Structure formats: C-alpha cells, structure tokens
Amino acid sequence: VEQVARELRRRGFRLTPQRLAIVRALAMTDSHPSAETLYEELLPSFPTMSLATVYKTLNTLREMGQVMQLEFKEGSTRYDGRHPDSHAHLICSACGRIQDVEVDPFSSEARGAIQALGFQLARYRFDLYGLCQGCQQKGASATMKAAR
Ligand SMILES: [Zn+2]
Ligand SMILES: [Zn+2]
Q1: Which ligand is located closest to the Cα atom of residue 94?
Q2: Taking the model in full, what pTM does it have?
C-alpha cells in the first residue's frame, strides 16, 4: 500500500484519505470487488465519498498496472488489487464469486506456438466458469429438500 501511495503521489495524484482507503481496501481483499461494492463498503467510513471518486481512483491504479480490471459482458467490472499481474480466475456462474487460482495456463507447447508467431505476450485473461463450493452445497441441499 505504501509503495502504491508513493507512486500515486509521484504522478501528481492527490491522495486524499478517501482515495487512500480505496487503495488499501483493494490491496487487502481477494474478493475481486466491483466499484459499487467498494463504494458501499467504504461509505460508512467516508459518507461524503462519491462513486466517481472510486472509479477515478480505480482507473488511475489500472493505468499504473497496480490493479487488474476484469470486464464482463454482463456489464459488471471487477477489480483485483492483490494480484495485478495476469493470473487465472475461477468464476462462479451462480453467485459471481471470483477466486484466484495458482496455475500456469501455458504449456511449453503453447508458449512455443505463441513465440512461433512472433507475438510478444504482455498479459492474458484466463477465466474458468462453473460453480463455487458454496453454491454446489446450496444446490445439493435444494435438491435434497425437493426429494423429501
Ligand atoms: Zn457461487
Ligand atoms: Zn484475481
């Protein structure tokens, strides 16, 4: 957080307590919040904060490469401030939970194929869709209730 704060100041970004709270909240969570979720989380501590401030701070962090932005067709954009570098995500289709998963999606064959095309890979998105553990259990108990 300190390092990000210093970098923001260096770029002439006015680091108000609200903005610092956004940076901190994002660095602390692995829940990949949306701007709206972050806003709602911080509003009790910063009642004068606007959603626009959250968006502006997120945008600046993204430009700095300090946050990974995950855009979805359904219109919601989620942010990962803990692991700004490319990594794989497990995305629950039922509740929208996003979890990080430590895997290297590239086989040496895949890396070779990319190299053969002379392409310089900068970043990637690797989204895996399914049901999280919680939703599977909920689904199982719903099925059991229906069977009774
Ligand atoms: Zn779920
Ligand atoms: Zn992530």
Answers
A1: 1
A2: 0.80
